Amino acid sequence: xxxxxxxxxxxxxxxxxxxxxxxxxxxxxxxxxxxxxxxxxxxxxxxxxxxxxxxxxxxxxxxxxxxxxxxxxxxxxxxxxxxxxxxxxxxxxxxxxxxxxxxxxxxxxxxxxxxxxxxxxxxxxxxxxxxxxxxxxxxxxxxxxxxxxxxxxxxxxxxxxxxxxxxxxxxxxxxxxxxxxxxxxxxxxxxxxxxxxxxxxxxxxxxxxxxxxxxxxxxxxxxxxxxxxxxxxxxxxxxxxxxxxxxxxxxxx
Length: 253
Prior knowledge:
This protein has 253 residues and is mainly α. It contains 10 helices and no strands. It has one domain.
């Protein structure tokens, strides 16, 4: 019972983080690994469990959705779905040892983006003397690659989206957050459909259910709180979680 309660709370935290700014995988996946699941299984379970929470958050944001650059919402979402499926296939097709080796580096990459993404965008804009303006095709290519990463691993993929849109379009993070949540839901949902039939995620039904219920509660609450929580405080929470988790993964390896 204690184990289930802790996983439930991890799900709440993960769902809330995904709704507020990203980083939910940094909480959900390590918690599941800590309770005995392999990294690959924990990744699949966390993706399935976080999908309903992301959908719930997207429903709260539905009136705030705005197109990204010259792309339509439908085209961007279709790209996210396709990339999510490709990433999920890679996770299931590659040997488990490949994910074990890649996980710390993927965490480290996402953490670096969390730490320096905005600064790098600002430097690039200063060097170029203007805001970078990506074409619709470039945006879709970038979104597909991020969706593949999201389907395969998912750590901080929402933050990476905001970094891409900020870097390529000068889009403010707060303005892009509703669309980020919607695209996160698309990636998770497409990967979930594959994981349910092709992975062993259902071998841990109690952990899956606890994480899922917690993520839905956290996702709804987090979306409602998104406009009220100071962005600086939120960033500190996400960065602390990312750095701590990355450090633990490297020490474990």
